Amino acid sequence: MNKGNKNLAVIGLGLIGTSILHAIKLKFDNEFVTYAYDLNLKHRQIVENLNIADYVVNDIKKAVEKADIVILAVPVGVMGNVAKEVCIYLKKGTILTDTGSTKVSVINDIKKHISSDVYFIPSHPLAGTEHSGPKSGFATLFENRYWIIVSSVKNDKTLILENIFSKFGAIIEYMDADYHDKALAITSHLPHLIAFTIVGTASNLELDLKNDIIRYAATGFRDFTRLASSDPTMWRDIFLNNNEAILEILDRFNKDLLELKKYIKQKNKKELFDFFSKTRRIRSKIVKVGQHEYEDFKKI
Amino acid sequence: MNKGNKNLAVIGLGLIGTSILHAIKLKFDNEFVTYAYDLNLKHRQIVENLNIADYVVNDIKKAVEKADIVILAVPVGVMGNVAKEVCIYLKKGTILTDTGSTKVSVINDIKKHISSDVYFIPSHPLAGTEHSGPKSGFATLFENRYWIIVSSVKNDKTLILENIFSKFGAIIEYMDADYHDKALAITSHLPHLIAFTIVGTASNLELDLKNDIIRYAATGFRDFTRLASSDPTMWRDIFLNNNEAILEILDRFNKDLLELKKYIKQKNKKELFDFFSKTRRIRSKIVKVGQHEYEDFKKI
After folding, report:
1. Which is the CATH superfamily of the domain at B180-297?
2. pTM for the full model?
3. What's the Cα-to-Cα distance from A81 to each of A22, A101, B277, rounded to whole Å?
């Protein structure tokens, strides 16, 4: 094997971390020597057996000390602590990125540990499935999905990340952290919050009715149960860390829902029809991106 | 052609009506002579061109006067009026069913027009896609989906419908109208209401931000836009006609959402984690039914 001389470390071996390793193995021609680390021994063993990293190490130091690029793919809630550990060992000139779903809080948590000779470039792949853990990763997860880079400038360092993510098949976008958090609050965090709630409501109703109505779930509810089966740790951390933007969006949603409720109460034919017609048009705006989420959907 | 001597009429040539015609053509061996009618000339022409009915007629009388079985597949809001027209022409012993998504109101609207020598057996196939109109129908729509028959008894008449729907591939369940409306309120109507709302909220936010954030829609929001692109007339009618059950479920949902909001505000780690863990388990309860909705999903 004629491996390249760039070292890349992935810290955190869940869905995102292992998908990155799969993608590097599949899409790069020995350009990187990869190091994989997770606090969880079982996760490391699974990755070892999957044979998707050159070195699966049992010590975070060994994972990052030679690294040219370090990717933190751990839950948002532990980013700060993991960064603190990692940063002690980084060599000069290392590029550090993270894949956290919230950016303002993660950047705050990480940046205080970064020394001036390390390049911290936060990022976020808008990709995922309802499955989690090291067995759930796959090489095409990022194909045709946005990968946000949080940087106000483009330079040779951001370009290095851009090239890697592009080769994974991702579509690169640059934006600032505030805008990211607001956009994600409406397009991802609120939908998941609602899904978690509605599935919980249905569950409570079943208990009250002492009957199993959920099995009648047709299109609609089925989608919600899929969203509501996503990793609880990840989502807890997102709601704790994108708190402000989510609460703001939630208030808007509640206002709109209250209005729709009013129309239902009033049996207001015209307003209901207008409302349901308007939302139909919005669908056409959505970029037609990759297929894997639908493939994944079929596993239900 | 050696057609059988049973006449079956489908009134209303949208997704459900045309899917029924497709399914009869595919799955029955000339057992029925089929009559198709829709108020809309264009819809009739499309069905004529699709060649899925023996007779596409331009007069509701011609569609139903010889019918042994009549299926009303029109929006819930016009069921009563259509039934009124149809019932004038029905011969003695005809079985009349409907496919309406709400049952209490539809039964009230229809039953006053039924004479004593006609058998009215309400039903509801829990099947659909976000597409509507005569071109959206397909023969396998009902495969592995529930088809509810609203009847407190099983007899030779309900058995006739049961046999047809079963041959379409549907799973037959009997229940009463109240229970149906409550079950559908939580498993279908509320999810759609929420989806319509959230897509509207996102759209308003875009206008305020003067920016196109919806294109970042990943899993989650994407599902909602699919639901929110369903037929507006159909959904308006559902919300007008299952009003009471929906408002009751909506109040429960709002209560649960308020609680979750409280936990987010408090940054209550434990309660958030517990809530997100609980809903994950519910998913496993959902019956693993047909694939076509996923196939359809892929058309996005």
Report:
1. 6-phosphogluconate dehydrogenase C-terminal like domain (1.10.3660.10)
2. 0.80
3. 26, 17, 24
